[in-house]
Amino acid sequence: MRMGFTGMTLDRADHLRRDEQALKLARMHPSARFLLLDGLKPVLAPDADRLLWVRRSQAPDNPSIFLGLDEEGIPHFALAGAAADVGGIATDARAAGTRLSAPEAGIVALARSLLDWHDRHGFCAACGAPTRPVKGGYGRQCDRCTAQHFPRVDPVVIMLAEKDGLALVGRQPGFPAGFFSALAGFVEPGESLEEAVARELWEEAGVRARSVRYVASQPWPFPSSLMIGALATADSHALSPDFEELEEARWVSREECAAALRGDGDWSAPPPLAIAHWLLRAWVEGQVPPS
Amino acid sequence: MRMGFTGMTLDRADHLRRDEQALKLARMHPSARFLLLDGLKPVLAPDADRLLWVRRSQAPDNPSIFLGLDEEGIPHFALAGAAADVGGIATDARAAGTRLSAPEAGIVALARSLLDWHDRHGFCAACGAPTRPVKGGYGRQCDRCTAQHFPRVDPVVIMLAEKDGLALVGRQPGFPAGFFSALAGFVEPGESLEEAVARELWEEAGVRARSVRYVASQPWPFPSSLMIGALATADSHALSPDFEELEEARWVSREECAAALRGDGDWSAPPPLAIAHWLLRAWVEGQVPPS
Predict the structure, then answer these.
(1) ipTM of the complex
(2) What is the bridge-based pairing of β-strands A225-234 and A154-163?
């Protein structure tokens, strides 16, 4: 199973980020390629399911982030810019994640998360002064108090509780009608992934669970989550949902789940772009580690 | 295996954090208990390996974070304060993690990460204005631009590459003499855990690896990491360390590793507080998932 937004093949070339002079040269490289994001929407070619890469001369004069080097050593960058100025199509990042090849979808995940972080972190959280981007976009520097700030990656656990051949799915209040997914929540300070899974199942559904088993992970650039998928064994089928978090929770069988994944069930399952799809599929197919 | 800093038994009671009035009442509860951290060092009882809990009347008038409820429903809080004022001992959090029971070590992990985050995030990263703590310490609110900010949890991959009965360990420049551990690095935006493991092994040691298998996770409150331990299969034993990140890297056998874990090897292994200890031990004992 290939998780959505994984599969970037650029070499992130961390050593270049530490070398401002080398980065400057990379930006001036005659073959350097630039991806625009228009209001955080990646700009795609007008005629095909691929990113529209432009030359430096076509790119606006905005700060760029360093994405990495391709196999030929050509540097790739991303920056904010208007799709109309380069003849491309600003495309919702979720749609792009589905339409693009895995290497290009991975680039969208990186570029969207980093550019969004810069948009919302222009000031020093330690002293309030303006900060400036450094390290090819992988940091911001405060010149007043010298604090360095680094992009956020927010770990989220997403999990299926199972018991006696049934798995637990739920609906958040904002979900489309009939749509159910795995439960999920942010990992908090001072807990392991296993503890976060047990806590979220308890908080959201009133379910006590144990034997947490890791299944897979996925970056989710809305804005910068790291989704960590797991399976857990519930103590009972009793439910007590927190209705602020969960509009409805229900236990479903493998048959119901398989139908939903095929698109002919009586509820809708997440699409293959989302790790929840693969969690459900792994459970239906018995492809998860034993407890 | 019980990871260091896991095992907190307080109910974090997320619903209370959303209710400012209930939190105020919880703070006034006659049985409420308060933990002081003195310069981020938890304050222990002078005569035993346990936390020194004090009453509200003994606690200074500093903002407190809500830790959770114990089994009797008694609310617990943490705040900055001087050990000397309450007759306790300010204790290094690593030492506390080793000396305290698992439930109390887990409390230290949560309290240290959250209080440190508040210390270093007094201003709005979006607009530069001062912010104020909300949600029992699980957020900060900007009253100028209305942005909400949440505590960081920074995922870190820590991994052993293995090939033909040998595992890869390394020394960072700041390590004590003779000390080797598993390689580690922060997960970056736009990558899965599996991709982060492969990238870090490549960047730090020049090793190509595949078949990444999850082993365990641990909160590490220095300042707010989530350590995610994994094993990976290396393509070859060839090494090309990045000497800025790694002073030395070497392949070790299970016998060498077992001796180091026992404390009688020709290098020193991480102590049981650290997930790296358990990663090495799991590898020595063959307790890791097959590739």
Answers:
(1) 0.97
(2) parallel
